[in-house]
Amino acid sequence: MQKFTHIEALHQVARYIEITNENPDCPEIHKIRTPVKFRATVKLHGTNAGVNCSPEGLVMQSRSRVITVGDDNAGFAAWMAEPQRVAAVRAIEASVRAAGGLDAATPVTIFGEFVGPGIQKGTAVNALPARQWVVFAARILKDETDHDAGYLDVIGPFENAYADADIHSVFDAPTHELGIDFDSRESKLEAASRAEALTQAVEAQCPWGARFGIQGIGEGLVWTPIGPHWGHTGLYFKTKGEQHKGTKRTKSQGPQIDPEVLAGIEAFIEFAVTDNRLEQGLDTLGEQGHSLEMKNMRFFLQWVGQDVKRECSSDLEASGLEWKTVSRAVTTKAKNFFVKRISL
């Protein structure tokens, strides 16, 4: 199976570009020397769900594993098995192949967010009258060392083409654009400020919910490069509303373009190991096919540790801390959270 790319925060993308551009061993073609234009789509609070399409059939997947009707995630495989949805996916697949110039034998994975009643809670999309699959990307198998990782620039608005099957495109909702010159601090601050304002508007009223007459909050936005930098997965970033952020900043200091500088281990734990992140860990546990039982705590702790290490590495570095000095405290807080949750 092909997993969808993990998406970072803006300050992590800025750091990635800095390291890449300063690396003498990195080929010049991979360096970011010109301003980058980004397009934002609404970030939906559901569960990642993909369909791998080949002549042999359709294979459903969650973010991390292949799923079936008998071993499902949020009921997606069973939902997708309905004939009208199979037909809709095959039609989308055909349009992807035509637009991408692909032959019939090349496996294509179509990614989307599965949203609606009973999947998550707390946002407008949870109040949709029925579950939906909202497509946002398509990908072919390709060497992971290639920056575009096989993503195809072929997904556009579906309008109502597959609405009868409850399948939509994220591009059916409004999108936004901004440019960033990563060599200019002023440009980064201006872009971060605009992205934050747009994200706050999404949090106040989810544009996807608004399409269906539902009032309620949204999660945030996903920003992907367009133009010459299209498909460069190292440049993808996300902006979340305050209610969905995985970190807790120590003070209000405007748009974030730099890592957080923290006073010590205790401050780092408060910043990084938030309830939002731990709740996401519980969601991931279910997505991986594990029940909420003590015997599965190790999978939860493993995910939390990996997520904190990946998403907060630049904050650790800026704070003069190392993973080995904070990992025990990360595990302790996550363990206490898990034990308390299963006792409810």
UniProtKB/TrEMBL annotation:
Keywords: Ligase. GO terms for molecular function: ligase activity. The keyword Ligase applies. It holds the Pfam family RNA_ligase. Residues 38-159 form the RNA ligase domain. It comes from Enhygromyxa salina. Signal peptide: none annotated. This is RnlB RNA ligase 2.
